[in-house]
């Protein structure tokens, strides 16, 4: 009798792979435990990432608000300087800074 691929010397029964449980129940339990632990670590990492992302957005918004307030203060002080010019004229430097800052946004 020939084998599964037509080989004359191999009996059909020898070519069949017997898939009895190569792994014991303890090995499956150990693998499941490791996968559960990895899943737990990934969930924790995702939570930390979400928390950091939220804090970053808060920081960016706070920074944006601070820049807007600073710009408003500079514009307010410049308008006062235009009405009452001081001895040293630093308004041109401030105006250039504000114009560059506005262009960058």
From TrEMBL:
Keywords: Coiled coil
A Pfam family hit: UPF0184
Coiled-coil regions listed in the entry: 28-69
Region (Disordered): 76-105
Protein's UniProt name: Bublin coiled-coil protein
Source species: Perca fluviatilis (European perch)
């Amino acid at each position: 009798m020939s084998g599964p691929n037509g080989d004359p010397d191999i009996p059909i029964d020898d070519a069949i792979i017997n898939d009895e449980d190569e792994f014991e129940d303890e090995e499956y339990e150990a693998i499941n435990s490791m996968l559960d632990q990895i899943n737990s670590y990934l969930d924790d990492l995702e939570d930390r990432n979400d928390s950091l992302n939220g804090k970053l957005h808060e920081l960016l918004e706070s920074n944006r608000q601070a820049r807007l307030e600073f710009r408003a203060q500079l514009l307010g002080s410049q308008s006062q300087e235009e009405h009452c010019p001081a001895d040293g004229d630093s308004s041109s430097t401030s105006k250039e800074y504000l114009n560059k800052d506005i262009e960058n946004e």
